[in-house]
Every structure is written in C-alpha cells, then in structure tokens.
Amino acid sequence: MTLHIAVLMGGWSAERQVSLSSGNGVADALESLGHRVTRIDMGRDVAAKLSEAKPDLVFNALHGTPGEDGSVQGLMDLMGLRYTHSGLATSVIAIDKVLTKQVLVPAGIPMPGGRIVKSADVHDADPLPRPYVLKPVNEGSSVGVAIVTDAGNYGNPIARDATGPWQEFDELLAEPYVRGRELTTAVLGDRALGVTELRPKSGWYDYDAKYTDGMTDHIFPAEIPDEITQACMALALQAHRVLGCRGTSRSDFRWDDERGVDGLFLLEVNTQPGMTPLSLVPEQARHTGMSYPALVQAIVDQAIGS
C-alpha cells in the first residue's frame, strides 16, 4: 500500500543533527519503497506544516524534547494524525529517568538506585559515594552525563568552574556508577532483536562515541554468556511492554561481569531510537536479515495496524 508519509525531523533539541540524519535516512528509504514523502524540519509552525501536508501517517524521527517527551505526540493526537513509535503517556514516562524507575522497578526490572539532587549542591558535597554518575533527568544520547571518580578532573568537591551538567541543568539524577560493560537490545514490535556490546576506543560511551564513526566498536552478537544475552532480551521486551512502547525501542544496560546476572542493570529505554548509519536498531535488524528499508516499512506497518 502506497502512503503519503510526513517525516518529522530536526527540531531544536540537543540531538537535532542526529534527528536530521535519522529523518533523511528514513525519508530516502520510504521513497525507495514507493511512498510519497514530505520532509518536515520541525519548527514552531509544525502544526501548520502538518495540517498543510495532510499525510496518511507521520514518521516521527525526532530525538529528545519536544519530539520524544510527549509534546509532539499530544499535538498529533489532537490533530487526529497517525504516527510511528510510542504515544503520549509512554513518551512522558520514558523520557523521564525517575518516572521510568518508578514504573519499571516495581515490575521487577533491575535498575541502579539514585536520587534527584540540586545542581548547586554538588559543589558543597558529593551526593553519593564516588564513583557515581550525574545526568539530566530528561535528555537522551548521553547528553550532559558526567562520571565522577576520585581520579577525575572535576575536583573534590566538584569545582564551580568545572565543565559539566551542573552548569546546564538545575536538577540532576545521581546514580551509583555500575562498573563493567555496555550492552544494548533493540525491540521491534513483539520481539527483541539481539544484544550488542559497545566498546568505546577511549573514554566511555558518550555522545561523541555514539555518533562519530570509528570511535566505538559494535560487537554483535555480544560475546557474553548466554544467560546474560537471554536476560537482556527478556528485560528489554518486558520494559517495552510495561511502558507501553509502540513500534521500536532500545534498552541500554550496564553489566558488571564479575557478578553474573545479578550485575545486570537496565539504565534507560529509548522510545525514539536513532535511525542513522551508526545507529544500533538498524544494525541489529540488519544482522537478523532485515534491510534498512524493510525495518522502516515494518515500523510503518505497525503504526497503521497492518
């Protein structure tokens, strides 16, 4: 079935450039499949642009706020538009790391502990024993994440002039640092696709390591015990279902390989995973025999209920 699909991309979040890359890749794939595509770089006039386009479906290729936090989803609900990926309530919860914990931990999904702290207070004393992690509550792609260690260069306590998320956000989530390995699992519809281990060539898996070619090795399938593979896939699928995700999601884990399955912790669930050439969902789909256009079409099919 040929559709008129508006691809919503760009916007003004910290992940704008990633969204543009995702959106243009999706639009190219949709055109290769014979669909009619309208590309929309989201601005404050997005409602007018969508109203003018009158698409059969909106492919939401936005990352971060306001495309991933429920704002755009609510707008499209009010306009009566069908769209890909998760709906309003799921998006509101999943973008907020504290709300995500409040929903997933009671369901039996292991996540690191943590608490909200005032950014100004970290200059007086550490909120947790070092090492610990400070991160914004409502950002993705490791934007604004700092790992605070005894050997780090932030100072002890953190110096007021040290560059970090405490300069950008009034509140932060403080979590214990989980040593070990970075794992991720994509979910498409009702199945987990596999487990990738991410090995940054230097430092840790931050924004640059995620989106700069050659900075991180992607090991798929991850070279880990089968029980860890199965646990990642089961937890990712459970999180997808408990949160009410639609289409595709990606769950990120840390695994302390000295503790076996007890060392596996889910960090966050991404309801708008990247669709760039370096993104993990297309990569896992490809390894399971699904081409990029086929993945895009599968997301479209789920959105229209076919």
TrEMBL record:
Cofactor(s), names only, from the UniProt record: Mg(2+); Mn(2+)
Catalytic activity: 2 D-alanine + ATP = D-alanyl-D-alanine + ADP + phosphate + H(+)
ATP-grasp domain segment(s): 101-301
Protein's pathway: Cell wall biogenesis; peptidoglycan biosynthesis
Main location: cytoplasm
SUPFAM superfamilies: Glutathione synthetase ATP-binding domain-like, PreATP-grasp domain
Similarity field: Belongs to the D-alanine--D-alanine ligase family.
Function noted in UniProt: Cell wall formation.
Record-given protein name: D-alanine--D-alanine ligase
Organism (species): Sphingomonas endophytica
Gene name tied to this protein: ddl
